[in-house]
Amino acid sequence: MKRKIGILTGGGDCPGLNAVIRGVVKSAIIGRGWEVVGIEDGFDGLLYDRCPRPLGLEDVRGILPRGGTILGTSNRGNPFSYPIEVNGKTVLTDVSDRVVVRVKDLGIDAIVAVGGDGSLKIALELMKRGVPVVGVPKTIDNDLMETDVTFGYNTALETATDALDKLHSTAESHHRIMIMEVMGRYAGWIALESGISGGADVILIPEIPFELKTVCNAIEGRRRRGSKFSIVVAAEGAFPRGGTRVVQKKADETMAIERLGGIGSFVARELTSCLDMDIRVTVLGHLQRGGSPSTFDRCLGSRFGIGAVELIERERYGEMICLKGRAIRSVPIEKAVRKLKLVDPRGQMVTAAKELGINVGRE
Amino acid sequence: MKRKIGILTGGGDCPGLNAVIRGVVKSAIIGRGWEVVGIEDGFDGLLYDRCPRPLGLEDVRGILPRGGTILGTSNRGNPFSYPIEVNGKTVLTDVSDRVVVRVKDLGIDAIVAVGGDGSLKIALELMKRGVPVVGVPKTIDNDLMETDVTFGYNTALETATDALDKLHSTAESHHRIMIMEVMGRYAGWIALESGISGGADVILIPEIPFELKTVCNAIEGRRRRGSKFSIVVAAEGAFPRGGTRVVQKKADETMAIERLGGIGSFVARELTSCLDMDIRVTVLGHLQRGGSPSTFDRCLGSRFGIGAVELIERERYGEMICLKGRAIRSVPIEKAVRKLKLVDPRGQMVTAAKELGINVGRE
Amino acid sequence: MKRKIGILTGGGDCPGLNAVIRGVVKSAIIGRGWEVVGIEDGFDGLLYDRCPRPLGLEDVRGILPRGGTILGTSNRGNPFSYPIEVNGKTVLTDVSDRVVVRVKDLGIDAIVAVGGDGSLKIALELMKRGVPVVGVPKTIDNDLMETDVTFGYNTALETATDALDKLHSTAESHHRIMIMEVMGRYAGWIALESGISGGADVILIPEIPFELKTVCNAIEGRRRRGSKFSIVVAAEGAFPRGGTRVVQKKADETMAIERLGGIGSFVARELTSCLDMDIRVTVLGHLQRGGSPSTFDRCLGSRFGIGAVELIERERYGEMICLKGRAIRSVPIEKAVRKLKLVDPRGQMVTAAKELGINVGRE
Amino acid sequence: MKRKIGILTGGGDCPGLNAVIRGVVKSAIIGRGWEVVGIEDGFDGLLYDRCPRPLGLEDVRGILPRGGTILGTSNRGNPFSYPIEVNGKTVLTDVSDRVVVRVKDLGIDAIVAVGGDGSLKIALELMKRGVPVVGVPKTIDNDLMETDVTFGYNTALETATDALDKLHSTAESHHRIMIMEVMGRYAGWIALESGISGGADVILIPEIPFELKTVCNAIEGRRRRGSKFSIVVAAEGAFPRGGTRVVQKKADETMAIERLGGIGSFVARELTSCLDMDIRVTVLGHLQRGGSPSTFDRCLGSRFGIGAVELIERERYGEMICLKGRAIRSVPIEKAVRKLKLVDPRGQMVTAAKELGINVGRE
């Protein structure tokens, strides 16, 4: 059966989005002869009579190695709570009806929604109002349930690990403490895994509120044993035991400027009180979202795109594509967005870090 | 209980070996206070009264980002069939008794054998003669059963995908067919996954003997549709339907020179007979084994090393560490070496390639 | 004065070509309001009534980091000796008149010819027939006179040095001799500079015919002093003293397959006769031409493009843009193509290699 | 004549330092049979009876591709103004006599001082007190006179350009202004050259105090012409016309934390007042100093090291090695440290940026 499908990318930028788009377009057109349209700027593209862009094989040529998304994305676009200006004031309004109507008017049979937690929840709500949707999980932080991992995470890890390699030379040459702040508001996956791969000495994650004294002791211990430098990786959402998160808002809702006074600087200030060492902070920031996707993310993104088309073919609406081991599977979106996938403080990864002699903020 | 354990790396070089060694050393010493010795040049290091090298925390400092293995490896060293010179002639001799005795003499309680198919089989045999062994799977080709993936494979994929990115510019600028030969004597995983990630147009793997006519048609079809260039990725063990493998010996048993007349050149010659296009061959060769391990391989290698020490602690000898999903598990070595993990011609990965419009040598 | 200028890229692919094109288009349009057309596939694009492609700011968006050339290139296209089929036979014919007429018909005021030795000579001849031309030097091998260096060379060096880093791990782990063959038919610059930067032990270049005995001794000497591996870099045009070049044709005129039996394999075969060591050969080939240009090449390419437009503005036809120190200058094309810039066997670079203990094929 | 020479690295970390050290050691030992000692932690290593480390060929093995300096560096160590604690207070004291005596006591015939502006001035003063010194220029910012360029700068440019490539994807996908702050307190070379190579839209450098209105107009203009994003590169020492520098202290004298409120954040705040766009800031910071040196810096560093040894051989004390075009030369240190090499606002590089349509803070 010939179909017309739409694809949109929502939420923060993520390496591999173009691989998903290309996967959807190629598998829909080459094998099935379907029609594909690209909805621009996330769910925003379904409002205000904006016209989706027809996507042919030509349009996805050469995009596989490119970061970002050719469809653009949006941070505003929740149609259930959309900022509408009324008498000079911004009022959050439910404009989802317009979306439902617009999809029908455009003759779109089904939508592939590529997004994180937030975007998938919107997709689920639209589904309940009759819009056939399938989901593709996207999160740089790796905090989505029901999938072993998503695209973008591996590229972000490569960027973070490469940065740690770079900081090592300066730390060693100058006998310094280098603190690197990485993404991860609620989940410490990037900090934990890049810290292990980049040879960090201390890793601070939101799931394990840290004790400053312990961190000081760990660094002091290293110095006593002859290592004149230390590398600390801190997830942006890490916070001291008994304290509160420095970053409360979404990274994409607040200006990066505010984040500059984030956890990295906080830890630096606190460490100066207990250590007589030179300290430097690096905030990796948006570099983690950019760049050409790694081979892992290109392959996974492509497979996710193909899988989404297969879900539509089998009319498994409301499902989300996922990775289990080496296999592509699917689960109800509902199960995936119920809660975030956090690091288990007693799980294998944290234990591995400890076995390697890394201080994770405690003991 | 305090233990003295040995670690050796056998078979071909592989990015991540040093991460494993470091993982073993750190987890054995820091948490357990054990003693670790490094056996040099694979099983060779247990012959001829060679002394293993004591490995302390100092010895593994800074090796995480480094390719290769600080312990060296050997291609000869099968103690069950060892080349001994007798009267000027080389005779393959069973010298495994010496190994068994040597391990006892050295007071080694258990050995971590890091290796592929071949090395693990040797480890298993030694096990049967009373040497306590645990295995860590190593294969660049990803052809080992019972583990989702091993370290080294991801780095090799990055190298191959990066090379494909590079060949794309020349292919496009010169309207050429670029053929790239990658590793994979029996299993086509590197060709298949790097081909998908690098945007190849044709992928040839040992598991699907190819039809030249089909390949020609695919390239011709692309030209008709306006694409003046094509990229072909061929696993070194690929061969034409009805033909035989060009590479029969192990890559490490034969000189690379002989391999230069491998499958890449063969396909180039054959394609010139049916296509009037400029063709170039690149043999990626040893570049795939080298370089700093990717973040994925550093983390996985470290976890495998830790896991091996835990296996020894629990006296699970004869077992091999493996990855299932995101978790480290173990299986009997016996199960892992029974046969090679080949690409399933009807499996998800091949189907994905086809969905993306890639020709895989058939249809 | 408003002008209409054409740009073409000739000869082999080279990272930075797109930077030149972008530099020409931006500086011609933004500051001067000129018109730019892109002539496709080198001088071929001026034959057979092919229409150049108008190039606006939109057309050069995003091409700066991309390898290759958006205009394509050609290996055939010498209009003074063009392969024309006459009665089924290919006859080399002077069709330069057509080019001269075509340029006039198209209303092109001046042409920016980006190319190496060959393309610049053609440009010079067209100049003599009344076509206003300015040149931009392009050579991956760095063998063009009158410019300190050209774009593309630095990127090729990065690729070669990175490959040497990779081969080091395998060489060390396996106690092997690794031979890497790099570009450089007549000039050994890539071999020499990447060899110095990549820590090679032996460097073979066309300018210094090598003595095999000397090379053997150097490797033997290393082994005696405890280094169980050696890295050899050989320019494709290197040859033994008293011998002849293995590669006689242009790399772009002959199939890569033939080159596989090149100098790397030759040296490997010869070394096996005097050394009892494992040897492997890697032919870097087209990987050197590909990939995203390095920052050096992007900046230099951009400046060359701008410089070419300034030459046209000042009507300095027949001149070629060049780099002297940190400054962009120009010289008569005639001076640049008179002879190749070869490595001086007594110059600073060869002396530097020797000071570092590298064997360069002699002594 | 056999000599004993010392080498020290002063000031900030810089990729290529190890290449210099290796070049000095290899050329002094292999060809000349000299003795080399490594003075640790800059000039600090000549105080308090610290013993230099003997450097043999073994000690420099494998350091060529490594960032940082195996000798360590120091930010305190000016022996003419050394922080000495007297009665609990830190007093800057001239302790240069100790250095002069120490050098004599150690039997060091000459010292290779690798450093920037500051370290070279110290070297010059020691020279006047009878310590034979030759200089090797080191500056990541490229602000040293009398040499075309120094090692480290190219690697820093690669890091900055790569970061700009990464920010491009996010900027495009999110329709954002991305501001990247790079090194350059007094000289804007890194900002200018990486901005050109990374396709920036605005470049702010200390040499051209910027007008905010102009910058706003440039970005607005882009938006009107359809480009929904803009990339701004700002040297840390850039400042608004009529304003003052935000960064007054040396990057290495002040904590990075303070710098987080640097020029990037300042520009972001100011731009929000005139533009209704999403803005993000990235402070590249220490990442620019780290990492494996590029091929250019490895080769240049090696040649500088060799050149320094040759200067000592010819007893050209008080001279500094430099690069002119492709040749290694030398100049009196005195000439090199007289003033900083700043970007000429009317020079070729700024003009090139303007020709490419980049706003440089004015017009």
From TrEMBL, chains A, B, C, D:
Residues 4-312 form the Phosphofructokinase domain. The keyword Kinase applies. GO terms for biological process: canonical glycolysis; fructose 1,6-bisphosphate metabolic process; fructose 6-phosphate metabolic process. Its cofactor is Mg(2+). Substrate binds at T139, I140, D141, R176, M183, G184, R185, E236, R280, H286, L287, Q288, R289. It is an enzyme of class 2 (transferase). It catalyses: beta-D-fructose 6-phosphate + ATP = beta-D-fructose 1,6-bisphosphate + ADP + H(+). It is found in: Cytoplasm. The keyword Flavoprotein does not apply. Keywords: ATP-binding, Cytoplasm, Glycolysis, Kinase, Magnesium, Metal-binding, Nucleotide-binding, Transferase. InterPro entries: ATP_PFK (IPR022953), ATP_PFK_prok-type (IPR012003), Phosphofructokinase_CS (IPR015912), Phosphofructokinase_dom (IPR000023), Phosphofructokinase_III (IPR012829), PKF_sf (IPR035966). Mg(2+) binds at D117. The record marks G118 as: Important for substrate specificity. ATP binds at G12, R76, G77, G116, D117, G118, S119. GO terms for cellular component: 6-phosphofructokinase complex. The active site is at D141. One of its GO terms (molecular function) is AMP binding. Its EC number is 2.7.1.11. Catalyzes the phosphorylation of D-fructose 6-phosphate to fructose 1,6-bisphosphate by ATP, the first committing step of glycolysis. Belongs to the phosphofructokinase type A (PFKA) family. Mixed-substrate PFK group III subfamily. This is ATP-dependent 6-phosphofructokinase. It comes from Geobacter hydrogenophilus. The gene is pfk-1.
